[in-house]
Design brief:
By secondary structure, this protein is of the alpha+beta class. It has five helices and six strands; from the N terminus they run ααβαβββαββα. The strands form two sheets. Strands 2-1-5-6 form a four-stranded mixed β-sheet. β3 and β4 form a beta hairpin.
């Protein structure tokens, strides 16, 4: 277990950022839930906004490098724009409005990162805001370790 933790931290620190990728978004959380259930992986959701500079920094410095890492024991990562509208497919397969999804998790500030189980239940406390890459990586590492343990 300790080797995985150190490998994870090393990978996060050494991989560079790339441009934003629409592959990190979804409207079908049920499909993602099925993948998470089959692979026994948590779902990492970053609630953000296009106009948020801190959200962009978080994406560039942490989320995208993590998303494109090839270690299959990393979480399934998706972003959710808090200003998106319309309907999405919820974890249970039901259509719901985007604002209901945001409200369920009491998202009032961006960026907010949540780590969920395959049913959409939080596994750990959310991480709200973004200032320092080093501090954030430590918070994220601790949250991910706890999340994987909760799924075991």
């Amino acid at each position: 277990m300790m080797i995985k933790q150190y490998l994870f931290v090393a990978l996060l620190l050494f991989f560079g950022a790339s441009s934003a990728d629409p592959a990190l978004t979804t409207d079908d959380w049920s499909d993602l839930s099925n993948i998470a259930r089959e692979t026994h992986l948590p779902i990492l959701v970053v609630f953000n906004a296009d106009t948020c500079g801190y959200c962009q920094r978080l994406r560039d410095e942490v989320i995208e490098p993590l998303a494109y890492e090839s270690d299959h024991r990393l979480p399934l990562i998706r972003e959710f724009d808090i200003y998106s509208s319309g309907k999405i497919i919820d974890f249970n397969g039901d259509p719901i409005r985007s604002r209901q999804f945001k409200s369920r998790y009491k998202i009032y500030a961006v960026p907010t990162l949540m780590i969920l189980d395959p049913d959409g239940n939080p596994l750990v406390d959310p991480i709200v805001g973004y200032n320092s890459q080093d501090e954030y990586l430590e918070l994220l590492r601790t949250s991910l370790i706890a999340s994987f343990q909760a799924l075991e």
